[in-house]
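Quick one: co-fold with FE2/S2 (inorganic) cluster.
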Amino acid sequence: MFKRLFIFSLFLLGLNSGCKKSSSTNTGVPNVAVNFTIDTNNPQYNNLTIVGGWMYVSGGYLNHGLIIYRASSTQFYAMDRTCTYNNSGVVQVLKSGIMAVDSSCGSQFTISSAGMVSKGPASLALKNYQTSFDGEYLTVSN
Ligand code: FES
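Sure, here it is.
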């Protein structure tokens, strides 16, 4: 009886977290190769022509995708969409265009501050990749 109750409790805990797989928490998003270049003059990347603009691109850890955010005329942030709580959730940018949230665990990140944590349980910022910009081409790499 107790064994059944224990297993049922574990099941409920699993449902509650919303995480599909168990792994250690707040240990950092594993490294994967990231290396691509965007032509910001291409109409497809129109959102990146204004400061404060952002868009999703593919790639990153488990192909969760990246958020590219234009922080200034010369600076971009390239953040992995993987929620850093336990690397299972994928963050969505809210309508404000400033915050990104993992609806599974509720962690929130400020994309205008390179993905700093604004609400736990995550304690690590979104993983950032290196960016370089020559005025037209944006290269994202690690
Ligand atoms: S719910 Fe698993 S990482 Fe946020």
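If it helps, Strands lie at 35-39, 54-57, 66-70, 76-80, 92-93, 99-101, 108-110, 116-119, 128-133, 137-141.
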